[in-house]
Amino acid sequence: MKLTTKGRYAVMALADIAKFDRNSPISLRDISLRQGISLLYLEQIFSKLRKNEIVKSVRGSSGGYILTKNPEQIKLSNIFSAVDEKVKTVNCKKESKKGCNGKSSKCITHNLWDELELHINDFFNKKNLGDLVKGKNENTI
Fold it and tell me: Is 123 a domain residue?
């Protein structure tokens, strides 16, 4: 299983915004400097976040981005979805008749990885930006 930098950086950048005043726009340049993320990469990520209405942009000299909702209302799973990030533990598709290993049956450990994927996605569905800002790290599984 692999979570790419796109998904991780999207969560980091949005947590950065959530940490500051929600009524004042935060520039991508400021996020880039604080989080050590390339400005060009942030621009690509925020384009997707804006299209999926997670953030909105504010123009002008003191412009930047603000969250469209309270941090507690933005689930991590929604962020991953907005940037086309999928948490998958197996390469095969569930509806495919072909197995994980290219043969006619699924591999012997397929159900284990499938179950893990459900737990991971459930975890990200329960966590929100507010949890990150408050430092809430207790186990919820």
Answer: no
Within 10 angstroms of residue 130's Cβ, the number of other Cβ atoms is 15
Residue by residue, pLDDT tens for the chain (141 residues) are 678 899 999 999 999 999 986 779 999 999 999 999 999 999 999 999 999 999 999 998 889 999 999 999 999 999 999 999 988 777 766 666 666 666 667 778 888 988 999 999 999 999 999 999 887 655 544
We report the CATH number of the domain holding residue 68 as 1.10.10.10
Residue 38 lies in a domain: yes
Task: Give rounded-to-5 percent helix, strand, coil for the chain.
Answer: 50, 10, 45
For residue 110, what is the enclosing H or E element? Answer: helix 110-126
User: How many domains does the chain fold into?
Assistant: 1
